[in-house]
Write a structure and sequence with these properties.
The protein is mainly alpha-helical. It has one domain. About 50% of the residues lie in helices and about 5% in strands. The strands form 2 sheets. It has a 3-stranded mixed β-sheet. A two-stranded antiparallel ribbon has the order 1-2. A hairpin with a 5-residue loop joins strand 3 and strand 4. It is globular. The relative contact order is 0.21. Bound molecules: iron/sulfur cluster. The site of iron/sulfur cluster has 8 residues, from loops.
Amino acid sequence: MDQHRHLMETLATLYAEMDQAYEEAARKNGFTCHGCEENCCRTLFYHHTLAEYLYLQEGLGQLSAETRRRLAGRAIEVRDRMHKTEAAGRPVSEMCPLNEDERCILYAHRPMICRLHGIPHRLQRPGGQSQVGPGCREFDRQCSLQPKALLDRTPLYTAMAQLERRVRALWDYRNKIKMTLAEMIATILSDDDGGPLAGMRNEIHRP
Ligand code: SF4
């Protein structure tokens, strides 16, 4: 379990590097993320790493039992509504269950995409292809469509992929993960829920 702790601390350090890269790119572009109408906590994001799932689980374990109960109920409702909307072929736009009164109640444990979204970025794929991604609509409004600096996601994604390999090796976990925050929270906090990681809930620190 010491090895697990070490890997979670490595992820915390990587998250701090992401926050720093975001701050720097935001400063160079003169961008401030504050109170936009198109709240990115409503964006449909999928999360793919066991490392982030386990870090979120750790964060949930630090909340009070009452908050976890409230959150579990909300996550299940959001997850079920999302599934119905998707099944009906309509676009999904649900507020993340961790967002309460316009603030993230697990800000220190929020996943990678919440930390990097909004600023235009570049990414060098392992195969050599390079891609550039846009910023959010608020970025375009504040900074025009021509960014002064791109956030380079390459070293951050590379470090995350290396860490993910180590976490999966430690837990001998081989399945693919594609989960929303609502699905992850529902799986971690709800006793009767299944999901790809349900079998691990008792092996790894249970909140
Ligand atoms: S984890 Fe936090 S920052 Fe990310 S979408 Fe949810 S409320 Fe927003």
